[in-house]
Amino acid sequence: MLINRRQFLYATGLLTLAPSISLAQIKDTYYEVLLRHTRWAETQYDTTAGRYRRTDFGFAVVLGNAVLLTRGTYDATLAGIEKDVLREHTLATIRHFAASNVLAGGTEWGKTLFWDTTFQSYFVLAARLLWQDLDGTTRAHVEAIARGQADYTTSLGTGNDPRSGSWTPNGLTGGYRGDTKLEEMGVYAQALAPGLAWHGDGPGWREAFGRWSRNEAGLPAADLANPSTVDGLPISANTATNLHGTFIVENHGSFGPHYQEELWRTSGRNAVHFLLAGLPLPEVLTKQPNGELLWRTILATMSDAGEPLMPMVDDREHLYGRDVIPLAFRSTVLNDPMAARAEAALASRLLAYQAHPPVHRLAKFSGEAKYEPEARAELAISYLLHELRPPASPVSEQEFFTRAAITIDHGAEPGLLTHQSPAAWAGTVTKPGFTKFAWQPAHDDWLFKISGITPMLLPPAAVVERNTVTHQKVRDGFDATASLLRFADGFAGTATLPTGTIVCALPRPGRVDVHNLAMAGMPGLTGSRTYTGAAGRVTVQARQGFRVDELTFPAVLARHVRMIGVQPHPTYGYSLFDFDLGRGKPTTASSFDPGYEPTKATDGDPATRWAVARAERGRADSWIAVDLGTTTTVQRVRLSWETAAAVAYRIETSADGAVWTTVAEYPRPDLSTPGWLDVDGRAGFVAQSGEQITVQGDTITLPAGIVEGYVRTDLPSVAAQPPPQCPPGVRASTADGFLTLFNVSNADVTGTVRLRGTRLYCGTQVTTATGTDYALDLPAATARVEAPWFTARGIPPGITAVVHDGQRVTFRGGPSRFTLTHRDGFTLPVVLGHADRTVTIPQAKAFPFDDLALGRVTFPNSVLPPGTSDPAAAVDGERHTAWTPGRDGRMVVDLGSPRAIGEVSLKWTDGPVPPHTVEFSQDGRTYGSATVARYVAVATGWRPGHASLRSLSVNEEPGLGPK
């Protein structure tokens, strides 16, 4: 295996910091990765046929080949093939598949929108790069493909492609349940781009391309509020909608950030054709309606590797080779410094990723076989984009995650409550089949397993009821989320803090799985993970291949030994390659699959195995037993499992094969420790329960009750602090000074929470000798987070403190003297007499604000109409910003959900106030007067010289808000 100097330094431990890469190195890295990937690409070459294979579109490797043949400094040692031979293979393949395409008169492939047109785009681009080397007939075929596909796609209008089976964009409406319009509409657009770029505007081509492209990220509430034109057509004419009325993208029946990137993946494929043809880009590629709102949701799930985290889809995880192109497009064509940071992070990891077995591949951890040639093609396009457009200068990683920080509740049906903080990502997932409390400290793409159906912390059962709170800094003074989830048999609570810390109230033990790989050059993936707790330290080595369990136990006399299952593999049940104790001995089992008899586990052949019958795969107590022939001393058993490895089992012995005694159990914890656990120096857990935290292999089990997860902190000190004392049905945490409260009961709770220290929270508290007694009023099945607005140092017991907000607190119960310190560092000496005293910190803000509009999404967003500034300035809580409407400008604020509307207040800058009206809507489509609305619109008759709107405030009608 060939590795470069940087990889060697990582592998030898001489370089252990997170990988980094300069702007100038990105293009060179892509070229080197393509060279190394050529070794895999050549496995697709069919020597008998004299061309690359059709299977899984293997012939799409020609685009990467074309880049290597026409650019850069070719290195045959890295590529594993001489340049002339690669050229011969490539040209022969282009000749064959150009002729065999349906649009050129062939029968082998092509024309079908899903997914032939994706590979046609790569194929046409490869041919154009090698145009001078192609014969006239092949050129004519390539031209026929581009023209014919544009004609065919246009002829479909807004209907389905009859050749593509069930794949559909659902016309121009979108919102097709179980899938997303974004990718499907993108496919229609990319089917037209090669024809437009290389052959001009055929009949209806450009109109169809624009129509599909403009609607990809469509959402009526946003589109109808936007009179801007793109390619001469108003955005308000768009008709498409997302499921759930948000910018979350759903695919494969769940939230898939990989598919949210499709907007720029297809844009990258399309743009490179126009750029190489020397043509200006269609405006829609640089001014995609709602593109920036969609990008915001990507940033809300971004990892440190430039790869979005995938909490609800696991068949698209760690697709490093494919997820380069959306970032490259945004960095180069859109000149986005945030995308440039993400791209640099991903590019810096590509060589390490590629060197990991199976070596040279770019889509090795998940996905379909066609993703490998696709990843090669899209890496080649990313190289070309960097060649054709200078990239943006990336922001620092710290600035990236500071700017990306946000809390979003996407709603009960999407089932995602998410928090991106500067220190970590976390999300409470309640979508059926995906239930979990996912957490990724330090945004580490390879620390905890959180994708797809992988369980984490929460029970994987269905959520019956979901109550959530989303705290936002602009409105509440801090970012946080809290949720209280009802299951059929109990409750669970989750909370996220601005520090990256998480808090959960677990109804039963929670599970966390840890990535443990040896991937030289990737931070944390050194081939082992070290766990430290009060009971000691253990290092768990990465498992290589199939699992082998070696169990020892006190010696016993027995003739019969068996493995009896307790918990099977969730899909495949139980299957053993080797039950070493019984080699050559009579072997029986509870069941077996034909060809996988029990004797296959004791025949000494490592390639044969026993497997339970297919009908028995879900049975927990399947067994396999050996007869040793005579009474024998037994003190060790070694089991070699296939993929169908038992999650839990017992080893039992017997003298007669009828009465059995347990002598060993699996799993046995590698570490069992009370109170706290450090995970490889990267994260840690603190549990209030008296039960143990256990580590078994790469799985952590945390006890029921309050569990806190920290990115980095002094875990022993935190664990030594006494937990809050709560009324029955209430769980509480003071992690990082924030008071997190969960009512895990069906009844409203009033009472007192006893806290240590002198932090003061919104509400009423009375000081004690050791802290405060906080007056609690918490509705049934709810949760919330309170910020520590003040600390009272030197305050005696018996003082009542009523914190009104983040600026003002009233004390009573003096006389006394003490020092009051605000959370933001403002300090004030307090002299309290017998009378009440209200103290105000003038420099502080009076959080939380009741304004429903603060920090909400506003429209129009992207693209802004001429003369109009961003309407978000009217709801950002800043006094020095304002929205300039532009001529007859109109703005809409999305309150996130229907709310009972009380007072709406508008504050303008100096100057004549323009004529204006305020309207309301439930659906973002129809506006008028209303008492309950989700959308609030301000329509103006603004002209130059009129005032701008400094703030739009919306207050809820008391007593009419959502319960």
Automatic annotation (TrEMBL):
Keywords: Signal
Polar residues bias (residue ranges): 155-171
InterPro entries found in the cross-reference section: FA58C (IPR000421), Galactose-bd-like_sf (IPR008979)
Domain of life: Bacteria
Region (Disordered): 155-174
Residue ranges annotated for the F5/8 type C domain, each copy included: 569-665
Signal peptide positions on this chain: 1-24
SUPFAM superfamilies: Galactose-binding domain-like
UniProt-recorded name of the protein: Discoidin domain-containing protein
Annotated organism of origin: Lentzea rhizosphaerae
